[in-house]
Amino acid sequence: MSKSVVPGDLVAKGNYRIYSNVIKNDDKFYSIFVGSAEVAGGKVRVTRLSGPYIPKIGDQVIGMITDVQPLAATVDINSYINGFIMANAFYKKRIDPSKRDLSEKVRIGDLLSARVNRIERGRDVSLTLEQKWRVDGDAIFYISPAKAAYLLKSKSNIINKIKAYTGAGIVMGINGLIVAKGEKDSIDKITAVIKAIESQVELYGLEDVLKGVLS
Questions:
Q1: pLDDT, averaged in runs of 10, over the chain (215 residues)
Q2: Where is the domain boundary, 92, 120, 135?
Q3: Which domain holds residue 73?
Q4: Which candidate, 21, 90, 100, 181, has a CA 20 to 30 Å from the CA of 49?
C-alpha cells in the first residue's frame, strides 16, 4: 500500500533499510520529494512524482533536437541535463564533418527515439539511436517520468489499451514524453487520458483510474 507524501513527511518509523528518496533521523524516515511512499520488504522508498527525468543507462527516451553541430546533435530529454548523439550515428559510419552537413539528416525540432548509453560526469547524456529512431506525430504530451515508467512496465499492457481506446499511434519514452499521431477525435481522446493520468496524485490506483476512462 502506498501513500502520497511531500518533502518532510514521515514515511516510516522502525528498523528499515533506505531504498530511495528518503532520509533517516534516528529510527524515523522522511521523504525528500513529492511522491508516492511505500514500506515493504524491510525497505522504505519514495517514488518521485514530480521534477525532471533522471537518466539511467539503458533507458529508452523520446527527445527533441535543440541544436545541430558538425560533430553532434543536442537533444532535450526532459531532464536537468542534455542528451547528445554523435553525427556518426545518423550516418551509421564514420564521417568527415568537413565534407558532411548533419542538418541534412536532422534539424532543430525533430523528434527521435534513443537509449541512454553513457552519462558524462553528470553534465551530458550520451545517446544511441533506436533502429527506428525517427518519431512523427500530431501532438506531444508530457507526464511525470515516474508515471511513464509505471505505465511502460505495467504487466496489464496499459499502453496497448490506451492505443486501442484512442485509435492513436503512440510512442512513449520513460522520460515522460508521449508523441501521438491520429485524427482529431483520437487526439482528443488521448488528451482526456493524459489528464486522467496527471490528475492521479500517486501511482497506487493509477491503473484503476485508467480502466475507468478506457471502459
A1: 80 85 88 81 80 90 93 92 91 75 89 94 86 92 88 85 91 94 92 86 76 79
A2: 135
A3: 60-135
A4: 181
